[in-house]
Records
---
Amino acid sequence: MPVSTRSQIKTDPDQTDPNQNPLRNPHHGLKEKMKALTLLYEQQKQSLKNPLEPPPQPPRFSSHPSVELSAGKRGGEKKEQTNVMKEKNSAVTRTYVLPQPPTYNAKENVEAGGGDRIVGFSCPRKAVVSTTVARKLSLGAQLEGRGGIGPKNLQEMDRVCLESKQNGESGGGSRILVFVRLRPMGKKEREIGARCCVRIVNRRDVYLTEFATENDYLRLKRLRGRHFTFDASFPESTTQLEVYSTTTAELVEAVLEGRNGSVFCYGATGAGKTYTMLGTVENPGVMVLAIKDLFNKIRQRSCDGNHVVHLSYLEVYNETVRDLLSPGRPLVLREDKQGIVAAGLTQYRAYSTDEVMALLQQGNQNRTTEPTRANETSSRSHAILQVMVEYHAKDASNNIVNRVGKLSLIDLAGSERALATDQRTLRSLEGANINKSLLALSSCINALVEGKKHIPFRNSKLTQLLKDSLGGACNTVMIANISPSNHSFGETQNTLHWADRAKEIRTKACEANEEIMQVPESGTDQAKLLLELQKENRDLRVQLARQQQKLLTVQAQSLAANSSPTPSSISSLLSPPPSSAQPNEKRKPRSTFMGGNCFTPESKKRGAEETVKELRNTVKALQMEIERMRKDHSLQIKQKDDFIRDISRKGAKSAGVGGSGAEGLKRVVTRASLRPKEKKEGELKSPNHRFLSPAPTAKKRSFWDITTANSPSLLTLNGRKTRSHVINDPPAAPSMLLQPGFARQKTETLKH
Ligand SMILES: Nc1ncnc2c1ncn2[C@@H]1O[C@H](COP(=O)(O)OP(=O)(O)OP(=O)(O)O)[C@@H](O)[C@H]1O
């Protein structure tokens, strides 16, 4: 993202000309200013020494310049603010903000009197409550008392709502919550004598100061600093658990209520994004803590297997989307009426925290990381972990409740300067792509903030994937990671600038994806039958998808056989692809039929053309067979659909006749379409349903939803054979490789 280098404070003691209008000459009266600054600095030091005194609250800059001309007009504001200097002369009143003295001290960024946990802030307790303001509005009051997070009573809720209205947060949607996390100074940084240029005060305010160096003649003796305020800011001593509980715990709760949530880490390379998201074995990050918390909460709520958790993990590397759990061909993003879909993305059904941890580890091994000059384990890709929680159950009144919530946890690659990382070609290409996507992200943020009609989500894969999080019905949290080192001043300023801007984004109102269907007593059996039929219907669709995948495999194999014309191999065409995929297989070509024995002497004798003809005939026959099967399945599905509709209609009629009221069958909430209960008791232990379709009837699908466009992948994961499959999609168009022109080219090559 472009670096904003606007200067907020400029003081120069050498310039003195008190007679000039300060509006015209920014260097005017600098000696006086310096004196006043020194005075204020002393005052501030005094006030800091006295912990009982409330910390100073400087006004936030809304725009450039640092000179705030309207300061004198604000009658309601406190007259004396220790770190605000007002200069009056006959013409104008000028206000200067003095950044906190930036000397590196590990204790400096720890709030005075602060405990171990963020929730225990002393003065900023109010600030923490206000961080939940926007979220509370969208989550509604039903979270009250569930996880201990949020207002404790209705009065508190009223106060919070009032506060948010005053902040201009009324309306349907909620504001993106923005948090800043400062990482500790690294060993290398200390070795080269880096100084801390960031100071966090009150766990909300971030003061950034640029030091003038002796060689910097242009800015010699000038101070440059900026002040930002966020929903919460975490000093370097903040633990992973504190970060999780302040930023994400509430979203997990909301996901269980059927809402969507997103958390993404943004910042320069080496600023601590991956540490925050993933963490280490000793200090697990947000992803791990969220998964643990999710399963704990599910266990507390229901032991009857009413919750189903699906998981997908993908990365965007060099503008290609890859499945981290089933590495293979790049995935294609498609946009349909249900949202952005990554075609062929595998969804794993997860049964326990341990299982998810293993999958996460697996995915991370597949993730693209390379050492750069700025970070030894630099993530070269944007990674997105998505967890979908479905809930199907009958409530006390025998109504069927279907609910789907999605949580996206996103670790972005670091924004970077080419020189700061590496100049070797591949690294710089990666860097360019990372910057391209982050630039696209900044354009989207700008457009969203400015309320433009067209938001350029399509400019990059990343923004396409983040469309739901930024512009959809979603509770979104941004964690901006920053480094304390003065050598990273530019990057830190850039990160804070965009984080500050992101605060203004409002997402759409996030309602629960929930549906409740009331079933009268007499209709219970019919409802059961309905669910069973829907399940059968889905199974048939799976079969259909498999057949289509087989067809694709056969087509691809026939193409391969153009160069390896051994007809005997055709007999094995219908067998699934090898299941020997290993985690580190990503960089290697997949061991498929394509890698067979090409150009045998036998094939040369026969003549390539003849073989191709033969194979084409075989493919044609197989295609016809598949088409026939497809038609059969479609017919069966149609029949089932009709039958289901029939039963529903009959059920509705009988409810009306039965006198329990026509309202008895009326849909109470119809945010999402009816989702069938897809498993029976004890299913938690069965691994057979690991790869289920992601909520085929959910109102809005997201990018991790499974589709058919990609080839099937039969893989070995954690010792288990797994297969991604597809349910709802129409037959995919034949691959480019199968176009007649391409085949002709191949034949000609063979002739030569
Ligand atoms: N809060 C923290 N506490 C302790 N160490 C941290 C913290 N944040 C980051 N680090 C350390 O800083 C280094 C860089 O962090 P990390 O890899 O998370 O950066 P990044 O922003 O993900 O970089 P990139 O974008 O290049 O992947 C790591 O060695 C990490 O352990």
---
Amino acid sequence: MDIAALNSTKVLRWNVLRWMCFCFGSLSAIFSAFNLTVNNFYTLGYLEICFSLYCLYTFIRLGKQALQVWQSIVMCALITLIVVFGTYIATPKNGVFIWSFALPILYYLLLGKYPGVILSASLLSLQSIILFEKSPLLPFTTFNLSLNLSLTYISIWAVSHIFEVSRAHSSKRLKNLALLDPLTGAGNRLSMSHYFEVELQDKSQLFLFLLDLDFFKQVNDKYGHDVGDKVLVEIAALLRVTLAKGYVFRVGGEEFALLSSFKNADDAFAAAEKLRSIVETTNIDIDGKVINLTISIGVTEYKNGQTLLEFVNLADKELYKAKRLGRNKVYG
Ligand SMILES: Nc1nc2c(ncn2[C@@H]2O[C@H](COP(=O)(O)OP(=O)(O)OP(=O)(O)O)[C@@H](O)[C@H]2O)c(=O)[nH]1
């Protein structure tokens, strides 16, 4: 499974932007013709032609490649410019300002929660100032109408906000479910293959520590499976805290893998030794039962061209040696 498929936010934004380019680009072409020939709003008309061409370009580009954040920013900026400028030059009865109601939805869908809040609030203030400054104030002669327009805008804004917050929350939950071990919160094998690729982009040397708890069966046998589970949670937390940088994955029942970059093999071995020693000297307190464990670690350095499987297999061989030579050892 490709981890990119779990990034539902990116997929959503790609879809929204692409089809928004198609719809708004077409509409803008129609409006530009209208503004240039009937309304005589030349600046707005030419702005709309440029916007249509930009939409066409972005629509084609997005068909071939992934979404870039700047594309969403430019789209929101351009469409805001057209709506604000149109509101400024046209009289309120032309109704250009009504397009403002669609913008909070686009801000939230394309840019997310915080830009959504800031841009929606800014647009509301800006459009209110422009409309109230206008003379004659025609459709705004009654308090009721202004109130209704403002409340409609705020309702659309609030719904967009609630939708985006819950969408982002579910997307994060889904990603965690797919990538994290539910018991310990460490990464699983899928996230390990992802971060392996990520770390390979780094110039420094990549090391893998394959780490197994010694005689863990005895913990389960003596204290029960529940206590065993809690010990695994504590060990995962200890590994995360002790490993200054890098990633911790649970790759088997009582087996963890740690990926990290170090300047050289000596630094990597010193870090592995530190892990081993900290686990050995830590008393894990589970509901009043004090448990002391040791770990065995196999260490390998990444060699160019290796696959993750080859990398893990080599570390596994080192771990096997550490176990065979008495456990509570670092080998590599
Ligand atoms: N509590 C708990 N135990 C687990 C989990 N997954 C695996 N285990 C236990 O881990 C133990 C692994 O036992 P062994 O493979 O014999 O290894 P060991 O006792 O650690 O001995 P060595 O690895 O040879 O040092 C078994 O008792 C499994 O039931 C889990 O998620 N929770």
